[in-house]
Amino acid sequence: MPGLRSVALSRRSFLVGSAIGLGTLGLAGCGTYDGMSLAEAEKLYGPVPTEKFPIPAVEVAKVNPKYYRRTVRYETKEAPGTIIVDPSNYYVYRIEEEGSATRYGANVGRSGFLWSGDAYVGRKGEWATWTPPKEMIKRQPEAAKYANGMPGGLDNPLGARTLYLYQNGTYTLYTIYATSDPESIGTGVTSGCVGLLSQDMLDLYARTPVKTKVVVLPA
């Protein structure tokens, strides 16, 4: 599961655990990066003031440009609408028509927490309450203060939107969630969940109904 930020409890410390955050490529000026200018990226990842908890703009200089959202060619036998998670390359794909996909940069599970297989979206949540699993509380006792749930908000680990992944009618404890930490994109930092930038997650969430198939590829 993702981590948490509060006065006493660092969200990034939950995400990273004992791992050290990896650096990302910086951007400067108005150059073009992999087909997208800095100005275009700033527009795509600008603030979202209309949300229940207004979402600030992403500091795009902290995100490797290859992880910006874009439409790419993607050949697959999966039906349009299917979500494919590629943890080895830190991407999430939403399959579109005619051999294309919307590709999002992601963070994924760190070593020891990776998983693969087929699942589906069993339920969805907007500004969801986050409740740390018992396994997390055992590993990180300071999370016990949220055993009864942490209300939704900008500091909540699940962020603005959450897709809960199920298998055979059972919640797997894994999610695709919204992160406000741009430096986490392109890294393995979570306890198995998959995080997209909040603006990307808003896009994916709006186009993903319950029962959507999710394929998590082997790392």
UniProtKB/TrEMBL annotation:
Pathways per UniProt: Cell wall biogenesis; peptidoglycan biosynthesis
Gene3D superfamilies documented for this protein: L,D-transpeptidase catalytic domain-like (2.40.440.10)
SUPFAM superfamilies, per database record: L,D-transpeptidase catalytic domain-like
Matching InterPro entries: LD-transpeptidase, LD_TPept_cat_dom, TAT_signal, TAT_signal_bac_arc, Transpep_catalytic_dom
Domain L,D-TPase catalytic, first and last residues per copy: 81-217
Keyword Glycosyltransferase: yes
Highest taxon of the lineage: Bacteria
Keyword vocabulary terms for this entry: Cell shape, Cell wall biogenesis/degradation, Glycosyltransferase, Hydrolase, Lipoprotein, Peptidoglycan synthesis, Transferase
Pfam families to which the protein is assigned, alphabetical: YkuD
Protein family (similarity comment): Belongs to the YkuD family.
Record-given protein name: Lipoprotein-anchoring transpeptidase ErfK/SrfK
